[in-house]
Amino acid sequence: NLLGQDFSIKSFVNDNQIRSTEYVKYTVETNKKVNVNPPNLTDFTIVQGPYSSSSSSVSIINGTIDRNETYTLTYLLAPNKSGELLIPPSTATYKGKGYQTKSIKINVGKSSSNGSTQNSSTQNVKNSNLFAKIKLSKSSSYMGENILVTYKIYTRYSRMQIIDYDFPMTNGFWTEEIKAGTNGWPQKQEVLNGLPYNVITLKKEIISPQKTGELIIPPIEIKALLNQDFFNRGYEKTFKSNSAKIKVKPFPKGAPQSFSDQVGKKYKLKVNYSTKQLKVDDPLDITVEISGNGNLKQLKIPQINYPTDFEVFPEENKEKIKVSTAGISGKKIKQQLLIPRHHGDFEIPEIEFTYFDLNSKSYKTLKHPAFQLKVEKSDGNSAALTNIRLNNQEDVVLLNDNIRHIESNSSFNRNSKPLFGTGKYWAMMGSPLILFLLLLLFTNYQSKNENHLGKARKKAKKELAKKFVKAQELLSSTKTDEFYQNIYSAWIAYLSIEFDIPISSLNKVTIIEACNKHQINEETTTILTRILEECELARYAPIPSENAHKTLSDSKSIITKIEQHAKA
């Protein structure tokens, strides 16, 4: 699939492993209406086609209108021989620039008289309609380097429901998961080996290796329900992904002493002092900030050796870090409060930070020069206490008007009082009343909970009516396929709530059983099942529009009958 600035073209087939007596459906898809040149075929003959079709959709996201158009050409091809055959690229020109699709390899096996395949490389090939894959942004890295890991499911099944999946523990990595948003990761389409797949992303994360050597991300195990529809319950399938290997390289020799395993790009060091001149007992705020793109979650801001004549208070640490598919970026901030207890000239030493730069593959050291600070004598009575330095702070000594030590030697006297009139007494007396009120609240809650199903059914009926209005609009626009999809999903959602049956358990048998249980007459049940069967049939074959009109009319007519019996 080759993309231009605003043009895309891709090709795919319905199967890349066939017998010599079978056909392959070849499709070319573009997002602009252009003339597409078919492939120059030597291994295949065009039996039918091209058949052209188009579709469009409009979406509004955050006030922005996004219009998508799709134009397709479909060919039916017959192989001229057996073996590994090739479908060459299709080509197109858009705005004076040429584009082409990828070539597609097709494995064609010989067929015997009984229809079996002989002497074919397609024999014993694993089913490729459903599989999982762990994808890495890189397979070789330095220790601590950010690596994007994506866990994906590739499926060609039109109906698939993920039941469960398990991510095994990974050893030797620091892991940060990327948040997907309220609706999860969007489902996309990819073409692999000429076959189109729906791609479901389970998780994305940034990992940082914590040791050198070959590290392995174990496979994930997934359980899915396939081909479940109105006619059958479907079947479960459990499958595993690949395992992913990463070769972790050691750092080059000669690392500076200030290097602490930070790896990344574009690191910056900022240091800010609240003042250059102050008086004894005045506060001094120091802020150290390190920003960049790397393993910032493990970053430790360098410690500073402050002059002993300063009282150092506990530091305050902050961070603003973003985890995305581009890696981990942001900054860490350390704020320190100091109070000088002597006057004079002081020096806060140089601050040094070293990281391994991935662009230059070398160590880079960031420095902030030593800071000269002048502390003058303080005004007022507190000056007489500035030369007192205490090693034992258990005695309470006034250092200034703002900061005091805590007195730790305290004594307590026992004060015995009778129970009557105390809070404990009144709590014991009020307990029965409180229990009675709680019982009333519980009874009220239980009554409301009993009405919850009734409210849910009313809401379901309103939603069904809205779906019918939408279906009428689709029918008026001659969008028959979308009409049947709308009717089907509307009925399934409604019946699930009305009959209190999970959607995963709804099928022809359970729906008929529920209708019998609620004494819905046979005629209504027959109409309901016919509607659902017709919706299923519409997925595989075109249905006349007059049938669609009758389906909508029948749907509106039987809803009242179902409501009357379901409430009974």
- The level 1 CATH classification of the largest domain is Mainly Beta
Low-confidence stretches: 1-5, 113-127, 381-399
CATH topology of the largest domain: Immunoglobulin-like
What is the number of beta strands?
Answer: 33
Query: Oligomeric form of this entry?
Result: single chain
Q: Report strand %.
A: 35-45%
Q: First CA to last CA: what distance?
A: 58 Å
CATH superfamily of the largest domain: Immunoglobulins
- CA-based gyration radius: 36 Å
Mean pLDDT: 81
The domain count comes to: 4
Give the number of helices: 6
In one word, what is the shape?
Answer: flat
Secondary-structure-derived class: alpha+beta
Architecture of the largest domain in CATH?
Sandwich
Largest sheet: 7 strands, mixed
Write the layout of secondary structure elements.
Blueprint: E1 2-3, E2 8-13, E3 17-19, E4 24-30, E5 36-37, E6 44-61, E7 64-79, E8 83-87, E9 91-94, E10 97-100, E11 104-111, E12 117-118, E13 130-136, E14 140-142, E15 147-155, E16 160-166, E17 173-177, E18 188-192, E19 195-209, E20 213-217, E21 221-226, E22 235-240, E23 244-249, E24 259-273, E25 277-279, E26 284-294, E27 310-312, E28 316-324, E29 327-340, E30 344-348, E31 351-357, E32 362-368, E33 371-376, H1 423-450, H2 452-476, H3 480-498, H4 508-517, H5 522-537, H6 545-567
Describe this structure in words.
The strands form 8 sheets. Strands 24, 26, 27, 28, 29, 31 and 32 form a 7-stranded mixed beta sheet that branches. Strands 1-2-4-7-6 form a 5-stranded antiparallel beta sheet, with no helix packed on it. It has 4 domains: 2-118, Immunoglobulin-like; 130-249, Immunoglobulin-like, CATH 2.60.40.10; 267-382, Sandwich (Immunoglobulin-like); 452-567, Up-down Bundle (Four Helix Bundle (Hemerythrin (Met), subunit A)). Strand 21 and strand 22 form a beta hairpin. The chain has helices at 423-450, 452-476, 480-498, 508-517, 522-537, 545-567; strands at residues 2-3, 8-13, 17-19, 24-30, 36-37, 44-61, 64-79, 83-87, 91-94, 97-100, 104-111, 117-118, 130-136, 140-142, 147-155, 160-166, 173-177, 188-192, 195-209, 213-217, 221-226, 235-240, 244-249, 259-273, 277-279, 284-294, 310-312, 316-324, 327-340, 344-348, 351-357, 362-368, 371-376. Helix 3 packs across helix 5 (522-537), helix 3 runs parallel beside helix 6 and helix 5 packs across helix 6 (545-567). The protein is of the alpha+beta class.
